[in-house]
Write a structure and sequence with these properties.
globular, 4 strands, mainly alpha, about 550 residues, four-stranded mixed β-sheet, 24 helices, single chain, disordered N terminus
């Protein structure tokens, strides 16, 4: 008798399991090739000024200083704790942080692909290709690290759902495992509190499971308990180190301005630049967002319930992540990269679990992969030729310039500025890095900043009511040199590097005249290397500098 039962769509690549050259095998081979061919270059890429700023804060704490009091910082301290740990164990080179970042990303990919194990190699290849292809602004950043606790918690949520369906499960077990998941989400909050929105979305989505709904209070109680424990541990550190009142001042007072300020110029231009830098990965959202919405509302009735719930959980995480990025965060590259990774994971798994429109799915996937490879720097001969040089020389200024995806600052010019300051025997607190991308020199020269306003330009822009205080502090500091980047004048790199008739120690011809009367460009030039300028202080009195677009990304 012929069965009338609905066919079951498997959660594995069973149709290809016996083939020697299936997509899983090809993806694994390509992934290994990518890791071998591109990892030395990745490790030698430059890091951004944000990374050096968190390093400076970590160094301050390790030398007996205090977070928030000694350096203005609007964010939660979790990222500084990570830097303290890494620097305490492995030293102060940029290569160390890049190796750590790669390890964190490997763990993140492992957790995400464990959740979608049927396509683990296909997803892994796409995620690693994206990671190796994006600019340095997406690496060694809180938002990318935040994906790790989110991916771990996603797997813990799935295990909790499975646990709730067991007839013999006891309330205490659900509570304890819920506490563990809450600890993971809570740890993520100390990196960036925005993760609360994805955490809430994943938990609410898990209630689609009727067995878990019956035990919701034990589960929720455990989650809240774990989150409170993580919060109490962090608050305890802040309290016993004396940092608590300074942390509260930043969060409750200073951050009210920080969250509403920031001149990023024309928003259309900003997002157009984002789309160019992230092409073709930005296209993921065009398919993933509507698909995620559909998956939350209605799915193929032939899919097994477990596959349906996995797709819903992943959709909820992805959409909630995009929501907090768009509504709550500034338009920086590193903020937009994690949701693209989640979108790719969702699409590959959803395509695998769909048996209709097979040709369309293959065309979309193949076209995207070709575009990703074509636009990726890791497939370019010039990039591949640096493999041996990276192994032999490490992250030198010349190699960083060749590997950098963002053409400023010039790292060889940075070395020239460092050499000049050494020749002038610059000491602690005698150097002010007005432009954010100059703060690497505090670490390179082992110098303490002149004031607590380390991101001087950004502090003046993001905290307008405190501009008089910041400028007064600068005037009263023992600074001898103020460092700026001519790119702050809105010039192209070629314009900022141009040498005019007045010689290499003068401003380039295209530099705006009105800026020459404002701080720090009203100070005499002691040394110039390309776009980087060392001003001698004292010179002209400090006046309010103009509010240009922030150079903090």
């Amino acid at each position: 008798m012929m069965s009338t039962a609905n066919p079951v769509i498997p959660d594995t690549e069973s149709s290809d399991r016996g083939a020697r050259w299936n997509t899983s095998t090809l993806s694994l081979g390509a992934l290994i090739l990518l890791l071998v061919a591109a990892t030395p270059q990745l490790i030698c890429m430059p890091v951004t000024n944000d990374v050096s700023y968190y390093d400076l804060q970590a160094r301050t704490v390790m030398r007996g200083g205090m977070l928030y009091r000694d350096m203005v910082e609007p964010n939660f301290p979790g990222v500084v704790w990570v830097h303290i740990l890494v620097r305490s164990l492995a030293g102060w080179s940029t290569e160390v942080l890049r190796v750590f970042d790669l390890l964190v990303f490997c763990l993140t990919v492992f957790c995400l692909t464990r959740f979608v194990s049927a396509v683990r190699f296909q997803v892994g290849l796409l995620l690693f290709l994206a990671y190796y292809s994006v600019s340095e602004w997406c690496h060694v950043q809180r938002d990318l690290w935040l994906l790790l606790p989110a991916a771990v918690a996603l797997n813990l949520r799935w295990a909790q759902i499975q646990r709730s369906t067991q007839a013999a499960v006891v309330t205490r077990s659900l509570f304890l495992f819920g506490t563990l998941e809450g600890l993971v989400w809570g740890a993520g909050v100390w990196l960036k509190p925005h993760v609360v929105i994805p955490a809430l979305a994943v938990w609410l989505c898990s209630l689609f499971n009727p067995a878990l709904r019956k035990k919701v209070w034990s589960d929720l109680g455990g989650l809240l308990t774990g989150g409170l424990i993580a919060g109490a541990l962090g608050v305890g550190w802040l309290y016993f180190t004396g940092t608590w009142p300074w942390f509260l001042e930043m969060q409750l007072d200073w951050n009210r301005e920080y969250l509403t300020q920031g001149n990023f110029g024309n928003h259309y231009y900003v997002f157009l630049n984002l789309a160019v830098r992230f092409f073709p990965y930005i296209l993921i959202h065009l398919v993933a967002v509507p698909m995620a919405l559909v998956l939350l509302i209605r799915q193929d009735p032939q899919r097994p319930p477990q596959v349906v719930l996995r797709l819903r959980l992943l959709s909820a995480l992805y959409l909630a992540w995009i929501l907090q990025v768009v509504l709550l965060q500034h338009p920086f590259d590193y903020v937009h990269f994690p949701p693209m990774l989640l979108g790719m994971t969702l699409l590959v798994y959803a395509f695998h679990c769909t048996r209709r429109a097979r040709l369309t799915r293959w065309i979309l996937t193949g076209g995207f992969l070709v575009a990703a490879l074509w636009f990726s720097p890791v497939t370019k001969p010039a990039y591949l030729r640096l493999w041996s040089a990276c192994l032999e020389q490490g992250s030198t200024g010349a190699i960083r310039n060749q590997l950098a995806r963002i053409p400023y600052p010039d790292w060889e010019d940075m070395e020239r500025v460092a050499a000049f300051l050494k020749s002038q025997q610059a000491q602690d607190r005698e150097v002010t890095c007005f432009s954010n991308d100059m703060i690497h020199l505090y670490l390179d020269l082992n110098l303490e900043p002149s004031t607590r306003y380390v991101y001087t330009h950004s502090c003046l822009e993001f905290y307008p009511s405190r501009r008089p205080l910041i400028l007064k502090t600068l005037r009263n500091s023992p600074q001898r040199f103020v460092l700026s980047n001519l790119m702050a004048g809105g010039l192209l790199v070629s314009q900022a590097k141009e040498v005019g008739p007045e010689g290499p120690s003068a401003y380039p011809p295209a530099f705006p005249e009105h800026l020459k009367t404002t701080f720090p460009w009203n100070l005499p030039i002691a040394f110039r290397a390309g776009t980087l300028v060392v001003h001698r202080y004292p010179g002209e009195p400090i006046e309010n500098p103009p509010q240009e677009s922030s150079d903090k990304h």
